[in-house]
Specification:
Blueprint (H helix, E strand, L loop, with lengths): L13 E6 L9 H15 L2 E10 L1 H12 L7 E5 L8 E9 H10 L4 H16 L7 H19 L5
Parallel strand pairs: 1-2, 2-4
Antiparallel strand pairs: 3-4
Helix pairs in contact: 1-4, 1-5, 3-4, 4-5
């Protein structure tokens, strides 16, 4: 490992979780890694390096303004490192707004852990090319999210 905790080799697959909020994040690293592996198996691609950064609402608004020109909070923003690469070794930083995700969980009468997992799945699907601008695409993504949540629930602890 290098001094910054990132791997030295180019073939390492890893997910790094950073919590920049004052609250706890209700997902386990092991569940996040299961999600990544499951999506690799069922949807292809290889997630070489994923930085998952939980931030507060002012931070996600600032990121949204700076990079997308939107002046509002959102649950997730994904930044792939190389959008022109033809290989499937995906590297990305994903920013998630923990308070926004918690509010969505409450709004949808969903357990916080499940909503946090759904949002991660959603971001990873975006990195694989899934889109959610049209209603049909949103429906397709939601079905994939449900598929992976079900897989996660049915995967025994290792």
């Amino acid at each position: 490992m290098t001094k910054n905790n990132f791997p030295d080799t180019n073939d390492y697959t890893g997910l790094y979780l950073f919590n920049r909020t004052s609250g706890n994040i209700p997902v386990r690293q092991s569940d996040l890694e299961k999600i990544v592996r499951c999506i690799e198996i069922h949807d292809g691609g290889q997630f070489r390096l994923i930085e998952l950064v939980y931030v507060d609402e002012p931070t996600i608004i600032s990121i949204n303004q700076e990079h997308l020109g939107h002046n509002y909070a959102t649950d997730i923003i994904t930044f792939p490192y190389d959008t022109n690469s033809s290989d499937q070794h995906i590297e990305s930083t994903i920013y998630c707004c923990a308070s926004h995700i918690r509010a969505q969980a409450s709004e949808h009468d969903q357990a916080e852990e499940t909503e946090f997992q759904r949002i991660i799945i959603h971001g990873l699907l975006h990195l694989l090319g899934y889109d959610d601008h049209a209603e049909a695409d949103r429906h397709k993504m939601r079905n994939r999210e449900d598929f992976y949540l079900q897989k996660l629930q049915n995967t025994p602890e290792q």
